[in-house]
Request: fold
Amino acid sequence: MRLNWNIVEKIGFPVALCMLFSLALAQDRVATQSGTGPQRRIGGDYVDDRVQLREYHFKDTDETLPYAVFVSTKVTKDKKAPLVLALHGFSGNHGTFMRTQCVDEAEKNGYILVGAMGYSPGGSFGMPMNARGGPGSRSKPAGPVGAPSPTDGQAPRPQPEVGATRDGQPGRGMFMGTGNGPGGTKETDPAKIAELSEKDAMYVLEMARKEFNVDDNRIYLMGHSLGGGGALHMGEKYSTIWAAVAGLAPAAFGFQWSADQKLKNVPLLIIVGENDRLVTGSQQLAEQLKGLSFHVEYKSLPGLDHGGIIGGSMPDVFSFFNQHTRLR
Reply:
């Protein structure tokens, strides 16, 4: 099957995105999880046993939505703690970033880690999912910057069945999810789902800030793939909240970047796997933003594919977060 921007325009962005990601997801049906003891599974994601799985009433649609919380044993009530809000990729869920590799880094660095459902597995965390331009665009896509690559006119090559780790060994539990997980079902319009996805994430963040003694100068945002694009959108929209933002293989379609955007003043990490054949153009995106004087750092990690970047990048992501505190 040949896939290019002309086809994307004809069939619509949401359909094209589903087609692209389904190719990779078809290879990701089986995985194992590192760590010891039994592991819970949400949809296609394995969740570490140390994670709290919660629910709350989502008043916008009168539904019960899930979210996930991990609190490091280093966090105490009498000391303000850093917090990371995590946004899953297409077909993922609130447990996508709650695998052992992520939890281990949050534990070691003394963080609260919060996973948002984003209303549904296809939630884009606020990026408009219009048919012609993709998230954040009002017209024809400007190009394949940080997007599932259509540049050679071919569909992306299938990803390995299980993501590879940085040392070249088979990865464990490093995939995006199968799309069979939880989430809201009352709303089906993509534009409204995008809006609800963002609201859900911000509601969950606010609940965590009220419950825990959070350091308001050390609140971080990270997202993978579609959630990586969502992190860029929410990073810009709520720029005064974040101490830093990390986009893991961000699927950032159609953003119109300029030197006067608020995200320019927020430290930004764009990190990808060298073996990623699904989302490409991240380096060009980073170079574009650097040219606009954004505070952006780009990393490409060897031996990791599109799914493997989630767990495999965590040491780098938390190291990046540790370097940055929000300036008043």
